[in-house]
Sequence to fold (203 residues):
Amino acid sequence: MTVRPRRIQLALAAVATGTAAALTAAAPAATAATGPRFLRPAELPPHPSSACYAGPVTAGQPDPLPICAGEALPSASRHRTFWTEYDTNAVQVTVVARNATKAADFAALLRRKIRDCAATLEKQDPEVSATGKYYGKLGVEEGAHVYGLHTRTTWGASDVALMSVGRDGRTVTFVKWAQMGDFRHAQVTDFKRTTRTAVDKLY
Fold:
């Protein structure tokens, strides 16, 4: 998704709860060389005219924080960013909790953040119009849920994002893919395949 006004990012950060801190305390931070495997560029939705590139797997929260999930992601996160030569980008964030119960609670928190994201954005900034969609649950490991978000601003920017939350045991992964456009440009089938692959790579 294209760069948003600073006030939107600050507003999303203010919505965070104490769950992130609890997860950080519950599980030691993994190094970038250990832990669950991450997606490769070829496993992201394909771009019609550009290769996909990826940064290294990095310990900590991504910067900038992904829209919707935001500050709910703990410092014990590990992430990897992806991009194309055009206005398409993606990020995967993975968190290992102390046990499966805490992981399930964290996954539920992320799903609530995404589900309520459109309403939160509109409440925080009158210049933003947002619409959310739910694309269903995937039967992979403990399950994964897929969502869409379209935002339009009064100055004409239009962006679409697909997001998913999946879990395998005590490991949770969040994946976001975004580009300019609207729901007609959302590669839902490809993103569901990406989500399945991401969850299959967890342990």
